[in-house]
Design brief:
Number of helices: 18
Low-confidence stretches: none
Radius of gyration: 23 Å
Strand order of the largest sheet: 1-2
Largest sheet: 2 strands, antiparallel
Number of strands: 2
Order of helices and strands: HHHHHHHHHHHHHHHEEHHH
Structural class: mainly alpha
Mean pLDDT: 87
């Protein structure tokens, strides 16, 4: 398996035309590469600043990915991230090994299967070969998931504490995990409550609260940093928060205007005009204060849409979240032109589809659909076998990340939950085997 995995990675890195562009400063453009921008700033200026704004202390984004890529930029004289991508691919394989061991401990004989489903998942494999924060973010959360899987086996509280710490380490890479630490006590409580024995609920709650406390201790220094810069105790500044809110509103506006999927209609100018007319000292506010007002107005505007208008964009996002295959990253790596944007920003499919494009597209989408079908069978299998604790552990993070994507159900936003989805698919295979052989296939007990 190792030979196949690393041979495939080496092949893509060798033939991928995009791989030779990794010396470009364009890597540091928003929205994925705040980490690269900060790493270059630290390298070039010797201070905690971004390369694009060297006269300002960096506050735009949690900084951990910058610390990850900094040594690779240093080794590549500020240009190449090839070594970082190679390390990402190695880390994916290493997490696959840990996952294999954890599943064999809990579910003997299926470790190799889940490892294969994870490391050869087209979405995981392709994004690992791209210099983005998503892979390191997802792998950190995967370690938290594995720790909780062990907790189901032995009930040791330190495993929950470790999971809590890892969740907020992940939050320091991408802030979308910020509410997981708060929700951890609820998940742990539910896992024990629906388990074979509901005894120890108080202990489980204490374990969960301990995990949350450790999570807060991990993220708190960054919050202190933002407060020292006049932003307040936050995980990201209002300017960054407004960007995501603006994208959500822009997608809804495009939907209402009948522009389809892809384009966004910005209301920032309208918001600013409205705020300027209602706030007398608008022009004297700081950028952070203006962004805070935009966020507050944007939230009110988002909640003003009729509820029925959310149905289609949310439904479309959910479908894309589960069945998109990540083929776009292969197209990007290999510089295969598959989609283009119109003047309005709408994504359109190009007429000429080469055999390579067709093969990559349907292999990627086919894998995603197959894994979802196996996962659906697993839900049936887990309910039949009363493995409700595993069901809670697997579905809770999936539902969380599905919900926070709102209208942006891309495959990269599914990446943080590819491990629990792979576990669900593995149990789906177990269901098929037990149905075919009419034998019980189940997890090892404590």
């Amino acid at each position: 398996m190792a030979a196949a995995y690393f041979s495939m990675a080496a092949f893509i890195l060798t033939i991928g035309e995009k791989c030779y562009d990794w010396a470009s400063r364009g890597l540091c453009e928003y929205p994925c590469q705040h980490g690269c921008d900060l790493a270059l700033g630290m390298l070039e200026h010797g201070a905690f600043v971004s390369a694009s704004l060297p006269d300002q202390i960096f506050t735009a984004w949690p900084p951990l990915y910058a610390f990850f890529v900094f040594p690779f930029f240093w080794a590549g004289d500020g240009h190449s991230l090839l070594l970082a991508v190679i390390v990402q691919a190695v880390l994916v394989f290493a997490v696959g090994l840990l996952l294999r061991r954890a599943v064999d401990m809990y579910f003997p004989g299926f470790g190799l299967l889940i490892m294969g489903l994870f490391i050869f998942n087209p979405n995981v494999f392709a994004i690992a070969l791209v210099p983005k924060a998503d892979t390191i973010f997802a792998l950190t959360l995967a370690l938290a998931f594995v720790s909780l899987l062990y907790y189901l086996k032995d009930g040791r509280g330190w495993r929950v504490a470790l999971a809590g710490a890892l969740i907020d380490v992940a939050t320091l890479i991408r802030p979308t995990a910020q509410y997981l630490g708060v929700l951890l006590p609820i998940v742990i409580f539910l896992m024990v409550w629906v388990g074979p024995s509901s005894k120890g609920l108080l202990r489980a709650l204490v374990h969960g609260l301990g995990g949350t406390a450790l999570a807060i201790s991990v993220i708190f220094p960054w919050m202190i940093h933002l407060n020292n810069q006049g932003i307040g105790y936050r995980i990201m500044p209002p300017e960054s928060e407004y960007i995501f809110l603006s994208d959500t509103i822009g997608t809804m506006e495009a939907h209402l205007a009948g522009l389809g999927y892809g384009p966004r209609i910005s209301l920032t100018d309208e918001f600013d005009a409205q705020l300027k007319s209602t706030i007398p000292n608008w022009d004297t506010l700081s950028d952070s204060e203006k962004a805070s007002e935009r966020v507050a107005l944007g939230r009110r505007h988002l909640l003003s849409y009729p509820p029925r208008e959310f149905i289609y964009p949310l439904g479309r996002s959910v479908v894309r979240f589960f069945v998109t295959g990540g083929e776009g990253y292969f197209f990007d790596l290999l510089k295969l032109n598959y989609e283009d944007q119109t003047a309005t920003g709408e994504l359109v499919r190009l007429e000429e589809s080469t055999p390579a494009i067709i093969a990559i597209k349907w292999i990627s989408k086919g894998c995603a659909i197959l894994l979802r079908l196996l996962g659906f069978l697993d839900v049936i299998w887990l309910v039949q076998n009363k493995q409700y604790s595993v069901l809670v552990l697997c579905t809770a993070p999936v539902l969380y990340f599905m919900a926070i994507t709102v209208f942006e159900g891309y495959s990269r936003f599914r990446l943080p939950v590819e491990v629990p989805l792979a576990l669900l698919a593995t149990f789906g295979v177990a269901y098929l085997l037990s149905w075919r052989n009419r034998t019980a296939v189940g997890p090892a007990t404590r």
